[in-house]
Amino acid sequence: MSTTVNPRQGQANRRRSSSVTNALKQIPLNHEGQPSRTIHETSEVQPLSGRPRPTKKERDALPELYKSEGFWRDLRTGRWMLIPSSSLALFLVPVVLYWNHKVLVQYGLLGNDTPNPFEKLLLPSGRLPNGKYEKSIWDITFCATYIIFWSFVRQFVTIHILRPLAMALGIKGGKIMRFTEQGYAIFYFGILGPCGIYVMKGLPTWWYKTEYFWIDYPHDQMTWELKTYYLMQAAYWLQQTIILAAKIEKPRKDFKELVAHHVVTLWLIWWSYMIHLTYIGVSVFVTMDISDIFLALAKCVNYVSEAASPPFFAFFVGVWTYFRHYLNLWILWSVYTQFELIDVSERSLFAPLQDKWLDWWMKWQIFAPIFLLQLINLFWYFLIWRILLRAVFSQGLSDERSDDEDEGEEGEQTTGDKLKEQ
């Protein structure tokens, strides 16, 4: 059967076809020839507005915050705490002056009995004739010097060792900064933790023989190892508090708890040092530092591979429970029940100008910072168990974000991120 085409219908079809063709020609990506005359001659594909996506080189580049603007400017602005070269130069000033004095004495330009004024910046003061040490006002200058030292160590290790390591392990985005923070914690506590055990082993309090916190009080004479360890810890925590207060590290959800932890820690350090209770101070340091090694290790493993992190996390929970709770509660129990082991003559007078510190009420002054520290630890312990139970019974130890998300955003943390920051 023949089909008759209506001339008007064919003309309409041609008009519609022509209209579609003209419309397609007005889309630059579909137009291979000259632009239509209905389009302005300068019409072309325009780039999307907004910031272009950074290249891999730009993403991996060190942030401007950690680049020196020159030593003197870094010194004036306080950036020296972030710049390893500047903090090292600042630390080397007393070192060079100390050895310069040694050379002048060696060559007779200064008398042999000329005291080295820079020694108090670098070495513990208060040496007694028997070779032991007592506390000294110059301990302040020692701590100030080693705040600079720990600033250099921290930034050198995080920028020049841990940051390249993180990128080599395939860590991206905000996780790089978190990895370097926790890697530095492993570095520091991995050194000071064993040092604390070594110092404690030389004391009568070895392994938490708590009665010797009080027997033969006051413990006003310290070995070189004990005094150096204590003051280095004090310098570290002062430096970390400055870092926290300046918000150099991105604040976490538990920022207030961290501030409280640092304040209580400094309170415990200085108060125990002033009132000759360094034995109990060393014991508290060990409980904190050893558990922090495994906390940081669990978090670093989690940043690299969440599938590999559960065994580390489980081991960390066990270590944390023993050190942060069992041993800390044992110390608290000692304060509560054994304080009276101190001779009555040494716990009946509060006279700081006479270096007499203990009266009956000081028992609670000793108890308070350790108890507050335990409350903060219990808060974190609750968070740890909540994360562990959720991981086991619901979501597992996984991060469902895609690689192109901002891994540094607060509130989008991995399981390891949700652990408390120390």
Automatic annotation (TrEMBL):
<protein>
    <submittedName>
        <fullName>Acyl-CoA-dependent ceramide synthase</fullName>
    </submittedName>
</protein>
<feature type="transmembrane region" description="Helical">
    <location>
        <begin position="366"/>
        <end position="388"/>
    </location>
</feature>
<feature type="domain" description="TLC">
    <location>
        <begin position="174"/>
        <end position="393"/>
    </location>
</feature>
<dbReference type="GO" id="GO:0005789">
    <property type="term" value="C:endoplasmic reticulum membrane"/>
</dbReference>
<feature type="region of interest" description="Disordered">
    <location>
        <begin position="399"/>
        <end position="422"/>
    </location>
</feature>
<feature type="transmembrane region" description="Helical">
    <location>
        <begin position="137"/>
        <end position="162"/>
    </location>
</feature>
<feature type="transmembrane region" description="Helical">
    <location>
        <begin position="312"/>
        <end position="333"/>
    </location>
</feature>
<dbReference type="GO" id="GO:0046513">
    <property type="term" value="P:ceramide biosynthetic process"/>
</dbReference>
<keyword id="KW-0472">Membrane</keyword>
<feature type="transmembrane region" description="Helical">
    <location>
        <begin position="80"/>
        <end position="99"/>
    </location>
</feature>
<dbReference type="InterPro" id="IPR016439">
    <property type="entry name" value="Lag1/Lac1-like"/>
</dbReference>
<comment type="similarity">
    <text>Belongs to the sphingosine N-acyltransferase family.</text>
</comment>
<keyword id="KW-0812">Transmembrane</keyword>
<feature type="compositionally biased region" description="Acidic residues">
    <location>
        <begin position="401"/>
        <end position="412"/>
    </location>
</feature>
<dbReference type="Pfam" id="PF03798">
    <property type="entry name" value="TRAM_LAG1_CLN8"/>
</dbReference>
<feature type="region of interest" description="Disordered">
    <location>
        <begin position="1"/>
        <end position="60"/>
    </location>
</feature>
<keyword id="KW-0256">Endoplasmic reticulum</keyword>
<keyword id="KW-1133">Transmembrane helix</keyword>
<dbReference type="GO" id="GO:0050291">
    <property type="term" value="F:sphingosine N-acyltransferase activity"/>
</dbReference>
<keyword id="KW-0808">Transferase</keyword>
<dbReference type="InterPro" id="IPR006634">
    <property type="entry name" value="TLC-dom"/>
</dbReference>
<feature type="transmembrane region" description="Helical">
    <location>
        <begin position="183"/>
        <end position="208"/>
    </location>
</feature>
<keyword id="KW-0325">Glycoprotein</keyword>
<feature type="compositionally biased region" description="Polar residues">
    <location>
        <begin position="1"/>
        <end position="24"/>
    </location>
</feature>
